[in-house]
Amino acid sequence: MNTVTGASQPVLILAIETSCDETSVAVVKDGREVLSNVISSQIETHRAFGGVVPEVASRKHVEVITIIIEEALAKAGVEPKQLTAVAVTQGPGLVGALLVGVVAAKSLALAWGKPLIGTHHIAGHIYANRLVKELQYPCMTLVVSGGHTELVDMPREGEFRIIGRTRDDAVGEAYDKVARALGFPYPGGPHVDRLAHEAPEAVPLPRVWLEPDSYDFSFSGLKSAVLNVVNQSKMKGLTPDVAGIARGFQESVVEVLVEKAVRAVRATGARQLLLSGGVAANKGLREALAARCEAERIELIIPPPVYCTDNAAMIGAAAYVKWLHDGGTPLDMVADPGLSLEQWSVADGENGQE
Q1: Measured distance CA(167)–CA(130) in Å, rounded
Q2: Across 59-65, average pLDDT
C-alpha cells in the first residue's frame, strides 16, 4: 500500500528527461524507489565542440529516445498498463531538447491512456534528495549546476521560494570557463576538482560576497581574476601554476557557497540542508559542506553522483509530489525553456488521488 495516499496500488511513474545533453528514462515507485534509471550521455559528441551544441543535442535525443524508453521499462519489469502516469521535464532547458521529451511523453500518455505530468527540471534536482532520505520541512536547498546557482527555501512539500541566485555565471558555467582557460576539455569541472585536491598550495583568489545581507552569488569577477593570473604568468614567460589556480578557484567558490547556505539555514529555521544539481558531484564542495554542517549540527542530504547529474529518476521523484497535490497536466502543455520554479510550486491541497 502507498502509505502517503492510502492507495492499494503503488504509484508507478515513467519519467523522461531530455533538457540538455542526457537522454534519460526511469521508472519510479511512490516517488522514492527507483526501479530503473537509464541514461544515454552525449558528452563525447559535444566534447569536440567544447560545449553543448543545441541542434546536435536535439538530434541525438531523437535517435535514442525510443530505445531508452523500452530499456527502462524492461529493466523495471513493468508493463505500460501498470503505470500510473507519464512524467517529463517541461523546462527549463534547451527548447529543442525539451521538445523531444515532451512529444515522446505526450505520445505515450495518449497511446497508453495515462495522465501526463509536466515537471520542473530544478524541482527534479531538488527531489533527487528524497531518493536518499525523507525530507523534513521547512528545508533549504543549495542548487548548483551548469545553468543554475540558487538558494531555495522550501517551507512545505512542493513549495519553492528562491532567496538567492547568481547575478551572472552559474557555478557550473564558471567551472567550465575556468577549465577552458587552464587548457582542459569539456566538461571541465571534474578536471578542476581533481587538480584542486592535488595542488600543495592555492593561488590566492578573491571571494565575492556582495552585500552583507545578500544570498546572491557572482562568479564572473572570479573567472576574470583567474584569466588575469594566467595571462600575467604567460606575459612573464612563466608556465601558469594550473593546479594552484584550480585549488584557489575551487576554494573561493566553495567558501562562498557553504557560508551563504549555512547562513540561509540559520535565518529560515530550516530543518535540513539539501545539495542539488550537477555540481553537487564536486568532491571539494561535498567535503566542505559536510564538514561545516557537522560542526554546525545541521542535517545535510546529498544524493549520490548518479542522481546529481541530469537523470530521469529525479524527474519521477518530483513528478510524484506534483501528482499528489495537483494531479496531471493538460495535454496541450508546451515545452518551456524559461519555466519558473516558484510558479511550478504545487497547489495548497491534495488532488484526491486516493
Answers
A1: 29
A2: 96
Query: What span, in angstroms and rounded, lies between the C-alpha atoms of 266 and 269?
Result: 5
Structural domain containing residue 322: 12-127+308-344
d(CA 67, CA 78): 15
The DSSP bridge pattern shows strands 149-154 and 85-91 to be unpaired
Residue that the C-alpha cell 569541472 belongs to = 189
Residue 352 lies in a domain: no
> What tens digit of pLDDT does each residue of 4-60 get?
454 568 999 999 999 999 999 999 999 999 999 999 988 888 887 888 898 999 999
Contacts of 165 (CB under 8 A, 6+ apart): 148, 149, 150, 151, 216, 217
Confidence (pLDDT) at 1: 45
Which residue, 1, 43, 2, 108, is CA-closest to 323? 2
* Maximum separation of any 2 CA atoms in the chain, in Å: 72
Strand, helix or coil for residue 68: helix
Total domains in the chain come to: 2
Residue 167 and residue 39 share a domain: no
Strands laid side by side in the 12-17 sheet: 33-41, 22-29, 12-17, 85-91, 116-120
Residue 4, number of CB atoms within 10 A of its CB: 16
Provide the 3-class DSSP secondary structure of residue 67: helix
DSSP helix/strand/coil, 247: helix
Angle between helices 242-268 and 283-296 (to 10 degrees): 40
CATH number of the domain encompassing residue 113:
3.30.420.40
